[in-house]
Each structure stands twice: as C-alpha cells, then as structure tokens.
Amino acid sequence: MHNFATVQEFARFRTVTYYTLKGEDAALSETDDFLARVKQVPQYDNQRKQLVKSIEYLGNHKEGAAYEVFRHERICVALPPKAKYSGHGH
After folding, report:
1. How do residues 1-40 score in pLDDT, each as one tens digit?
2. SS (H, E, C) 42-60
3. CB proximity list for 84: less than 8 A, separation 6 or greater
4. Is residue 89 part of a domain?
5. pLDDT tens-digit profile of 45-57?
6. Which of 44, 45, 53, 83 has the lowest tally of Cβ within 10 angstroms?
7. What's the domain range around 43?
8. Residues 10 and 18 sit within 8 Å (Cβ to Cβ)
9. DSSP secondary structure letter of residue 18
10. Number of domain units in the chain
C-alpha cells in the first residue's frame, strides 16, 4: 500500500512561507488537522494561541532556517525519490 501526499503552502508571511503535507485521501492537511484537533481541547487553548503567535512572529521577523532544529542526516537521505511525491509547482 502506497500513501501519497502533496506539499501545500500553509501560510505566507513577510519573510517565511510555511508548507504542510496533505494526504491524497485526507480532507485536511496535516497542519490544519492538527490545529483543528487541538482547538477542540480547551486545556490546550493557551498553548495553541502561543503556537500561532510564534508562527506569525517567525514568519514576519526571521529570515532563513535555524539549522540547529533540524535532524542531522546525510544529504537528502530522508527525502523520497522524486517520482513518489508531488511538490508545490511540480
């Protein structure tokens, strides 16, 4: 069984554009699904709001990736072969 996903733009800000994945059979992207589920749990409300504020702040005030937060692997080892995914604009 193969699961296919499309890379989609999630949010665009002044300095950063965020992307998400959407499975071919999914109603929502991974990000939209996560935020919708978290929104249903009242005790996570403050954390959800802080996450959204952080995403907006980083999107409007930071430039470039903070490489220290990424997994350190060999170059592109974690990416699937090009034929197995559909990226934005491909």
Report:
1. 567 899 999 999 998 899 999 999 999 999 999 999 999 9
2. HHHHHHHHHHHHHHHHHHH
3. 2, 4
4. no
5. 999 999 999 999 9
6. 83
7. 5-84
8. yes
9. E
10. 1
